[in-house]
UniProtKB/TrEMBL annotation:
The chain crosses the membrane at residues 12-36, 67-87, 93-114, 135-158. Pfam families: YdjM. It comes from Paenibacillus xylanilyticus. This is Metal-dependent hydrolase. It comes from the Bacteria. InterPro entries: YdjM-like. Keywords: Hydrolase, Membrane, Transmembrane, Transmembrane helix.
């Protein structure tokens, strides 16, 4: 999927995990982190010092598109939260550990609808997913994006999304 579609999906998933700004923004951010292994991607272009060597060594859609990566990233937040909780309230960091897990998973599943990823890396390195021609990739991506925009607008107008985001504090 394209970065914009990943961001929309990640924002929705993040909101569902935590109906707060932290949930939405954490979901959007974590939903694009996986493409750090592709120098031409939205995020890869910005951190090319990481993305170029990563693509050379690991290839695209491998380690950063695995369950292992989503669990690892989530664990990093849990460990940080445990350390921070010694000194102060670490609830937002604990919340983020769920949000980033969901955000990264949404990216991986999104990519699997239009291509293959090494979901079970490093246990099983073969790529899994639905491989489609480029024109269909674009059609599916567009349909997903339209559905997400509809869902978001619908919930902004008729749901309690705005209420929740205004009512809840940052996290
Ligand atoms: Zn990807």
């Amino acid at each position: 999927m394209y970065a914009k579609t990943h961001m929309l999906l990640g924002g929705v998933v993040g909101y569902l995990i935590s109906p707060t700004w932290l949930g939405v923004l954490g979901g959007i951010g974590s939903a694009i982190i996986s493409d750090i292994d592709e120098p031409k991607s939205f995020i890869g272009r910005r951190v090319f010092l990481v993305s170029i060597p990563l693509k050379w060594t690991m290839k695209h859609r491998t380690v950063t598109h695995s369950l292992f990566f989503s669990i690892l990233f989530s664990c990093l937040f849990v460990i940080s939260a445990l350390i921070i909780s010694i000194f102060t309230d670490a609830t937002p960091i604990f919340t983020l550990s769920y949000v980033v897990f969901g955000g990264i998973l949404s990216h991986i599943l999104g990519d699997m609808v239009t291509g293959r990823v090494s979901l079970l890396w490093p246990l099983y390195r073969k790529k899994i997913g639905i491989k489609v021609p480029f024109w269909l990739y674009r059609v599916i991506d567009m349909l997903f994006r339209l559905a997400l925009v509809y869902l978001i607008i619908n919930n902004l107008i008729f749901g309690d999304v705005i209420n929740n985001l205004l009512k809840n504090k940052l996290f």
